[in-house]
Amino acid sequence: MELIMDILIVFFLISGVFFYFVGVVGLIRMPDVYSRMHATTKCDTLGAGLILLALMLAQPISTATAKIFFVIVFIWLTNPTAAHIIARASYKTNIPFASDTEFVDHTSDGAKEERQ
Question: Quick check: 98 and 35 in contact, CB under 8 A?
Fold first, then answer.
């Protein structure tokens, strides 16, 4: 049983580090703020969640385990919300999209507005 738990812990740690790595590569490689934000929010949500889950499994059930659980819940609630607010603020302040992005706005009075 202990071997299975150790394998799970290592799997979650490696998976979390992988998502962080992919997020950093996306931050460097993506062309605009919207794409970069997409990449980095995935690494924060999944990477941190998996690494913290590995920490929960690595120790016996205690108050620290409960605290880590609440940190995971907090990250899963706040990270997408913050990303949404940043994307909305970027859109409202006319931060440009990448040059090859196709975008149609359906939000303004039913009229379609194309934006570059």
Answer: yes
